[in-house]
Amino acid sequence: MTILGIESSCDECAVAVVRDGRDVLSSVINSQIVHHQPYHGVVPELASRLHVEAIQTVYQSALSQAGLTLAEIDGIAVTKGPGLVGSLLVGLNFAKGLALSSDKPLVGVDHILAHLYSSQLETPLPYPHLGLLVSGGHTLIAVVRGFDEVEVLGTTVDDAVGEAFDKVAKFFGLGYPGGKVIDDLSLEGDSSAYRFPQPRLQKATHPFDVSYSGLKTAVVNQRERFRNSRGKESLADICASFQTTAIDLLLKKVKSVSAHTGIRRLVAGGGVAANRYLRQRVKAWKDWEIVFPPLEYCSDNAAMIAGWGYHALLRGDRAGWDLNAESRVRRFKNSFH
Ligand code: KG4
Ligand code: ZN
Predict the structure, then answer these.
(1) Looking at ligand 1, which residue's alpha carbon is closest to its atom 23?
(2) N or C: the chain end with fewer CB closer than 10 Å?
């Protein structure tokens, strides 16, 4: 079964063709980053307009790279949310147009479930496993029991982890997005130069939740209070100390969730899953099975949408013409949130 996937939830306009949920025949991504860089973040109105301009070309490239015509596609999968509504609507309406004109089945895909599925494009994984989704918009630790059975145990109470990387990078003039730059600079820095505080969450918050706004404030406004090293301030030391604190916090929560559930299989996804310190830390975990998606499937892409959509279409899920955009993260089954 060959599925065409469409992703337009944020600043990547992407179309992919995937066979049987796994075999990626093509994955074309048109990134808008250069257009948003002058504003140090994604401008929603601009993103929608850029999707309108790009989507037809991206779609044609994906089909031609797969060596197929629309007639040879068995179904259309499209991101329905969460994301920027104006951007989502571009992909949704394009998908509806394709499905209507070619009489193909259509299915709406949750972007978060698709990120959690992305590793399976390369490695089929047994359930249950722990899912760690870390991106610019989301931070989730979940128990994944099936392709659409996700129990969220921990999330952020404020900023997403990637957002914290981006805000710290913006403050120091390192450009947008900032995660990769901080990752690179940290290689030259001393992570013990600053001892940034771990967040103290209020009692009412769930024990597996994380928080990043306090860490960001400490780095930006109060770093002298937490400085161990003497001499000239070094940006590399600040980055390394921030990165270590941000990632160690996540991993501490993953360990707590594992102790709670007894699961020692971890599957990561999202842009921050590209982080080298994160990858290196978990590599050292004994008796764990750790799976990271290849870098091209960490950040937003349509292969994960087509991959997840295959399972939904196979089960018989069908979207109607009233399929609409969902801006908010939906409450997953059995979720604590
Ligand atoms: O998944 P993604 O492409 O888009 C969404 O936010 O959905 O993730 C982008 C985020 C940005 O915040 C970016 O700074 C961060 O991923 N990121 C990284 C790295 N590469 C990208 N963060 C830390 N280390 C990296 N190497
Ligand atoms: Zn994403």
Answers:
(1) 179
(2) C
